[in-house]
Task: inverse folding
């Protein structure tokens, strides 16, 4: 494949990765700053039902493509750019991709999803549900804050990679 074509493809995929990370950062930040605060003001029965509904509808192709596809885009940009992008650009891509994978995806899988599963298993009308909601609200939001920070940092690093790649092309 032509070197210029590979470079352009790597840069385009890198832009997609930066956009995906930014979209996830926006989603996570909105949850921490607005959604969870609004739900915390509701009676536990209503808050649990609302969050259970959110957790059901969010797992759709549009979300999964951005959520998981961003990591794939980082890996592709790095792989395609290995011989075609500068070492500095590749360092930004590697750092941004690693932070996204660890702080966005790994935290989600290890902490937020298990909490979502525990919340899904409770009856919103039960005493157990009310107790679970208080634990969920605190722990889920704490882990979501970590996801927010990680994806913001990832977005910044990926944007720096885009700018650096465009400047050195």
Result:
């Amino acid at each position: 494949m032509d070197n210029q074509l590979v470079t352009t493809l790597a840069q385009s995929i890198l832009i997609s990765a930066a956009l995906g990370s930014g979209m996830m950062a926006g989603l996570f930040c909105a949850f921490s700053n607005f959604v969870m605060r609004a739900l915390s003001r509701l009676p536990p029965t209503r808050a649990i039902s609302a969050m259970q509904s959110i957790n059901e509808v969010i797992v759709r192709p549009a979300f999964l493509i951005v959520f998981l596809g961003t990591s794939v885009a980082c890996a592709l940009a790095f792989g395609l750019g290995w011989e075609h992008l500068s070492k500095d650009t590749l360092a930004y891509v590697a750092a941004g991709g690693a932070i996204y994978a660890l702080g966005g995806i790994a935290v989600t899988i290890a902490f937020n999803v298990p909490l979502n599963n525990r919340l899904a298993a409770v009856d919103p009308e039960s005493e157990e549900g009310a107790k679970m909601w208080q634990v969920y609200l605190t722990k889920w939001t704490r882990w979501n804050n970590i996801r927010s920070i990680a994806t913001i940092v990832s977005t910044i690093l990926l944007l720096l990679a885009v700018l650096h790649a465009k400047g050195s092309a």
About this structure: The chain has five helices and no strands. The two ends are 17 Å apart (CA to CA).
